[in-house]
Amino acid sequence: MSGQDTMLEVEDLVMTYGGFRAVDGCSFAVREGTITGLIGPNGAGKTTMFNLVAGAFPPTSGRIRYLGRDVTDLSTDKRFHLGLVRTFQIPHEFHRLTALENLMMVPPRQSGEGLLANWLSPGRVRADEERVRARAVETLAFLELSHVADERAGNLSGGQKKLLELGRTMMTDAKLVLLDEPAAGVNRTLLRKLEEKIAILNRERGYTFVLIEHDMEMIEKLCDPVICMAEGRVLIQGDFAAVRSDPRVLEAYLGETVGDAA
Q1: pTM score, two decimals?
Q2: From 19, 77, 138, 154, which residue has the greatest number of CB atoms within 10 Å?
Q3: CA distance 73 to 57
Q4: Packing angle of the helix pair 158-170, 122-142 (nearest 10 deg)
């Protein structure tokens, strides 16, 4: 599984809740520069997998390696500072802050966070804030959200919130971004825009993505490879056509064998 361009390795990962195995011995790799789709029926263990990779809680057993480093026991915060960032199916915006302020909140270790620095180095704090603001303005322009820069984030549409969530990952030094159902609650027009921005970030800015998604049109357009999970296990990893036509995948989604379906 290891390779020079391998960014993430999941090895024999298990997560149990009581006697229930939400993740049951999963292994897969994510190559740098790819957009990997993670699909499967409801209850397949996809979100639990994301939580494990992001560090929300430790696995029962197994290992997670990121950029060649064992991060199994690292906290979410430490993984974040290594460039491993996730989004959520329901965006976690600061709803009372503006879209611009939401982006400006993201970069860690800003000098203005320290009370002492505001007293002793106001010039440095001001310069740092202007640098962050300029980056946030540029990010909103890239996402075509400049017109809502001063709008409270809580008032944005579902699609605009998903774009803003993507923008928050851009305000970090993200290398690997875990996108949890980016298409959920997004109208078709904004979904096409979201797809376009993900593709540009991958192709032109070097972001690697793993995305959980039920919208197969989006998976087909963006993702290679595709990983299908069912009942906590990885069924298959390959290109979209191979995964879509695999009898195990059809059975997992339809709840019946291909012969029965026919």
Answers
A1: 0.86
A2: 138
A3: 9
A4: 130
- Mean of pLDDT over the chain: 88
E-state strands within the chain: 6-17, 20-31, 35-39, 61-66, 69-70, 84-86, 176-180, 208-212, 226-230, 233-238
- Name the DSSP letter for residue 223: -
- Please indicate, yes or no, if residue 229 is contained in any of the structural domains: yes
- Helix-strand-coil percent breakdown of the chain, rounded to 5? 45, 25, 30
DSSP one-letter string for 64-100:
EEETTEE-TT--HHHHHHTTEEE--SS----TTSBHH
Contact by Cβ (8 Å): 27, 11: yes
Q: How big is the chain, counted in residues?
A: 262
Q: What tens digit of pLDDT does each residue of 40-70 get?
A: 999 999 999 999 999 999 999 999 999 999 9
Indicate if the alpha-carbon torsion angle 64, 210, 247, 48 is positive or negative: positive
Phi, psi angle pair for 81, to nearest 5°: -70, -15
CA distance 174 to 181: 18
- What is the per-residue burial (b if ≥16 Cβ within 10 Å, else e) of 59-70? beebebbbeeee
What's the average model confidence in pLDDT over 127-135?
Answer: 87
User: From CA 125, how far away is CA 114, in angstroms rounded?
Assistant: 9
- In degrees, rounded to 5, the angle at the alpha carbon of residue 32 between the alpha carbons of residues 28 and 36 is 55
The residue range of the domain holding 53 is: 6-93+171-261
Query: Pick from 112, 128, 155: which residue ends a domain?
Result: 155
The total number of structural domains in the chain stands at 2
Residue 197 makes CB contacts below 8 A (sequence gap 6+) with: 142, 143, 163, 166
How many whole angstroms from its chain centre is CA 159?
16
